[in-house]
Amino acid sequence: MNPDDVWLSTEELAARLKIPKKTLAVWASAGRGPRYARIGRYRRYRLSDLLLWEQDQLDKSAPSRVEDPVQGSHRRPPTRPPRRGRSRDR
């Protein structure tokens, strides 16, 4: 079956993602979450769009790694520059 032919209800999507239906409503009102179509008064989610959204979420959450040339190991890049000025320990 073609994923473009399969549509999920809010209840089915909430069960798939194991999240409350309310979360999907909040995401929809904020313009976040998976793409959906409004059919009458119901939101319907096309499976092919959902699969792309899930992959995007996975890609966003995967930590980027930088190879340490000295050690040859992988480490996370710094998330923010070091603090300057007075130390909090004083």
Q: Could you explain the architecture of this structure?
A:
This protein is an alpha+beta fold and 90 residues long. It contains three helices and five strands; from the N terminus they run βααββαββ. Strands 1-3-2 form a three-stranded antiparallel beta sheet. A two-stranded antiparallel ribbon has the order 4-5. The model has no long low-confidence stretch (mean pLDDT 85).
Strand order of the largest sheet: 1-3-2
**What is the ordering of alpha helices and beta strands?**
EHHEEHEE
How many β strands by DSSP? 5
Nearest-integer average pLDDT = 85
User: Which of globular, elongated, flat, extended, rod-shaped describes the shape?
Assistant: elongated
Main beta-sheet annotation: 3 strands, antiparallel
Rg over CA atoms, rounded to whole Å, is: 21 Å
Core attributes:
single chain, alpha+beta, two-stranded antiparallel sheet, 5 strands, three-stranded antiparallel beta sheet, 90 residues
Short structural summary:
The chain has 90 residues and is an alpha+beta fold. 37% of the residues lie in helices and 17% in strands. A hairpin with a 6-residue loop joins strand 4 and strand 5.
Topology:
Elements: E1 7-9, H1 10-17, H2 21-30, E2 37-39, E3 42-46, H3 47-61, E4 66-67, E5 74-75
Antiparallel strand pairs: 1-3, 2-3, 4-5
